[in-house]
Amino acid sequence: MTYSTDRIEALLNEGVRDKVYPGAVWAVGDATGTRAQGATGVLDPNEPNVPMQADTVFDAASLTKILAVWASIGTLWEEGKLDLDTPLGAFWSEVDGHPLRAVTTRQLLTHTAGVPLRAQLKNLYGTDPQDIRDGVLHEALHRPPGEAVEYTDRAALILGYLAEYLSGRRLDQLATERTWQPLGMHSTRFGPLPAEITTRCAPTELDQDTDTHLKGVAHDFSARLLGGVCGIAGAFTVLDDLAVFLRYLLDTSTSHGQAGFGPDWTRQSLTVQTGTLEPVRGLFWHPAPGTRPTDNIWVHYGFTGTGMWISPHQGRWAVLLTNKLYYTRDRQPLTDVRNTFRALAFV
């Protein structure tokens, strides 16, 4: 197994020079461990003498959907507490009598549920967490379930609420107890982060209210509105924790502990679940752009500049963590870097 380490380093160094991101941390590996890794750039351009490090803490953004929600839903499914194809209204009292009652868990996981495309939580429901929960769970559908694949943050928010309902635990507690602690992901947690951890956290976007870059506090507004914990975003993580997580997905025997979900959940999630609908989706994961179905390379991204890839067929995984949001919301420069990085990691 070979990796184009020199070309990966050159690619990511170029991204720093072009101000795609202040810095990046990356790794590639297989079920047995990390085969190559590196860090480039700086943590914060305002402190040019502080380099990006392998243990830098990143705002995971939508990787939260995998690390917390997908893993927790998988745990509940494995325990027999959840059938993916039973309409929610049949067992969830909070949605019974409302449009969401007809939607299934599988449709939420494949972004085919027809729920509204934008969160807009504060504008629609105010700032009280219970009012927001009620509003989201009682909202009208955007289109009939199963009609189209449309990515929406609300799917993860609803699934986070569902996991809390079925487990009787808050999402952060459930994810920590059933996934992060058993796998030894000791640096993965929901924010806001304590001061001693914030110092090694990569800053993200400029906060207009304080005129400082967000650091140790979730960039995602919905997560901040809900106190830092929600299905959309809010988790912080480090490279080594993601490596442990992805290794477990390839081979559960690599871990000293057992997460609540196992290989059956991973296998089902990393196969096409959307039938003839486009774009193709698994369960929250989707095929990496520019790859063929036979390549079997799946990915999930985070808006702050994070991403992780996995291929059960090739027995490989890859992680690229950046704080590209420090500079811009423009997606294209990082999209080009991500696609090239994936091509080099999965030769």
Mean pLDDT figure: 97
What order do the helices and strands follow? HEEEHHHHHHEHEEHEHHEEEEH
Low-confidence sequence ranges? none
Helix vs. strand class: alpha+beta
Give me the side-by-side strand order of the main sheet. 2-1-11-10-9-8
Largest sheet: 6 strands, antiparallel
For the termini, the CA-CA separation is 9 Å
Shape: globular
Please tell me how large the radius of gyration is: 19 Å
User: How big a fraction of the residues is strand?
Assistant: 5-15%
> Roughly how much helix do the residues carry, as a percent range?
25-40%
What is the strand tally? 11
Helix count equals: 12
Protein name: D-alanyl-D-alanine carboxypeptidase
Organism: Streptomyces poonensis
Domain Beta-lactamase-related: 9-334
GO molecular function, one term: carboxypeptidase activity
Write the layout of secondary structure elements.
Elements: H1 5-17, E1 23-30, E2 33-41, E3 58-59, H2 64-78, H3 105-109, H4 121-125, H5 129-138, H6 153-167, H7 171-183, E4 189-190, H8 195-198, E5 206-207, E6 212-213, H9 221-225, E7 235-237, H10 239-250, H11 263-269, E8 286-287, E9 298-302, E10 306-311, E11 316-322, H12 332-345
Antiparallel strand pairs: 1-2, 1-11, 3-7, 4-7, 5-6, 8-9, 9-10, 10-11
Helix pairs in contact: 1-12, 2-6, 2-7
